[in-house]
Amino acid sequence: MLRKPHQICRVSPELEHIQAIEDIREFVKNEKAEIEQTINNIGLTLRRAELKDFSGIRQLLCKRFNPDTAAQISFYDAYRSIRHGYTMVLEDKDGQIVGYDYSLGYDDDDKTSFGLNIAIHPDWAGYKLKTIVSIYTSLLGMERGSRIRRGIVHPNNLISLHNLLNNTGFLCEHFYGYLPGFESSRFILSFSLTPAGLMNNRIDMDKLLDYINVAKEGEDYKLVECDDEPALEEMYNSTTFRVVAFVREGALTEKNLLFAVPHELMNFPPSSIYQAPIG
Ligand SMILES: CC(C)(COP(=O)(O)OP(=O)(O)OC[C@H]1O[C@@H](n2cnc3c(N)ncnc32)[C@H](O)[C@@H]1OP(=O)(O)O)[C@@H](O)C(=O)NCCC(=O)NCCS
Fold first, then answer.
1. Residues 116, 81: contact at Cβ < 8 Å?
2. 264 band by pLDDT with thresholds 50, 70 and 90
3. 236: Cα separation from own chain's centroid
4. How do residues 176-224 score in pLDDT, each as one tens digit?
């Protein structure tokens, strides 16, 4: 199971024991109910997307992403993830879509649950809605039997890196300096879809900074600047270090940094070690 070192994570030990199917079902049911309540409490509704939501979602997507990135999400993606996946929308009291998470599952060896694309309206920033909604869709994946949640992010999308690596628990399984179609670099993200995989991989920044003080740089961990793509490429191609946390500018240095540890510490399954070649 993909796990970050517990020395840098917020860990609830009791979650490690939730392994039986019926206990996992109970966990998913309770966590979903809690998220629905949290969202209701701020005056929004979280519901499954329907085809009629396409234009509302598209409007928000075009508002939140630049035209090139927005163009990468086709109507085919939308149709498949609404009709056959588990795309969720956030709706305000006037019926406007103020958030969405395109999510769907695949029949590969990991039965991957994929978070295709997510955005939150800027009027609703500050409520951690990205983290909350993507945890909800991850729970839906777990409910359907997916074993690994995956996603894609650009190494300079700082807010997303913070949300995905520190608040949600993803790690960066692969780095592509150039991903065809995206026409630039991307990380492929993943975490194990178990209660402990979902909840116990989140970063405790105080613990992380303590760890940096006592551990050996270059052996136990490495730090790379977010915009140093040649260094990221060299690390992913020639070492087993993999990025697990984001350290915001000001916390350690004046740069935004990515914190990496060797994958041997994290029980990478074969599917996570294999990086599909380009070219
Ligand atoms: C990314 C996005 C979905 C986040 O929306 P959100 O959940 O409303 O975000 P919030 O305002 O609640 O902020 C969440 C966290 O980001 C942090 N954050 C904000 N600005 C940041 C920055 N410049 N660098 C790092 N972290 C930042 C906040 O401090 C907060 O973390 P905390 O709660 O741990 O302190 C939203 O900004 C968006 O739609 N962006 C455009 C589309 C996009 O990038 N989608 C994701 C693609 S992977």
1. yes
2. very high
3. 19
4. 999 998 889 999 999 999 999 999 999 999 999 999 999 999 999 999 9
The C-alpha atoms of residue 265 and residue 11 are separated, in whole angstroms, by 16
Cα atoms in the 13 Å half-sphere on the side-chain side of 206? 1
Q: Give me ligand 1 centre to Cα 71, in Å.
A: 21
SS3 171: strand
What integer pLDDT is reported at residue 41 of this predicted model? 98
Cα(250) to ligand 1 centroid in Å equals 17
257 lines ligand 1 (CB under 6 A): no
CB-count burial class (<10 Å; 0-12, 13-18, 19+) for 278: exposed
- Specify the DSSP element, H or E, that contains 140: helix 129-143
What three-state secondary structure class fits 145? coil
Instruction: For residue 77, report the distance from its CA to the centre of ligand 1, in Å.
Output: 24
In this structure, how many other beta carbons lie within 10 angstroms of the beta carbon of residue 218?
10
Q: Buried b vs exposed e over 78-109: b needs ≥16 C-beta within 10 Å?
A: beebbeebbbbbbbbeeeebbbbbbbbbeeee
Which ligand 1 atom sits closest to the C-alpha of 160? 1
The tens digit of pLDDT for each residue in 139-172 reads 999 999 999 999 999 999 999 999 999 999 999 9
Could you please state the CATH topology (level 3) that the domain comprising 6-201 is classified under.
Answer: Aminopeptidase (3.40.630)
pTM: 0.95
* C-alpha Rg value of the chain to the nearest Å: 18
Mutate to test the pocket of ligand 1, among 159, 161, 184, 226 (most ligand atoms within 8 A of CB): 159
